[in-house]
Amino acid sequence: MKLTKEQKQELIDKLARPWGRVSLLCDGHKVELVVKLCKGMRYRVVTYVDGRWESKWVSGKEEHPEQKFLNKQVRPACPKKDKAAMEKAVGKRYFKKMCVEDRYWTATFTLYDITWASGRSAINHLCKVCDSIQIAPEEATA
To answer: Which superkingdom is the protein from (predicted)?
Structure first.
């Protein structure tokens, strides 16, 4: 079962306010989205799967079923600044050969963040990755 446009908008509106909270049932898991004060005066939407989050989910080294509910981020292993400096130092043609031989220059690593910048991005992601998503009944949220 999927969410209607009205339900999605209602959930996004709840998560637009500080300390907003939404509980969903996604593919047999209870997923809670909570707006919390993060760094300074910034609010972020935090994801809890079955009422908790574990640090082993954050690393992309192992596969966990809970990772599909989190914010996937793929980042380069080498900063752009270092890559540009090396390309300038050795030349474009040789740098392409270096990239083929040494994976450091093209490698990436994956992180799974439990926070989202907005409620809209969290809800849209869950609607995209979950086969079954519905609003949790009130007695299940208590």
So the answer is: Bacteria
Q: Would strands 115-116 and 108-113 be described as parallel, antiparallel, or unpaired?
A: unpaired
Q: Where are the alpha helices (DSSP H) in the chain?
A: 5-14, 55-58, 80-90, 92-101, 119-129, 138-141
Q: Domain residues for 125?
A: 1-53+115-142
User: How far apart are the C-alpha atoms of 38 and 35, rounded to whole Å?
Assistant: 9
SS3 74: strand
- ∠ CA(74), CA(76), CA(78), 5° rounding? 160
**pTM beyond 0.85, yes or no:** no
pLDDT in tens, 44-68: 999 999 999 898 988 888 899 899 9
**Judging by DSSP bridges, how do beta strands 133-135 and 108-113 pair with one another?**
unpaired
pLDDT of amino acid 139: 64
> Does some domain include residue 63?
no
Whether 8 and 48 share a structural domain: yes
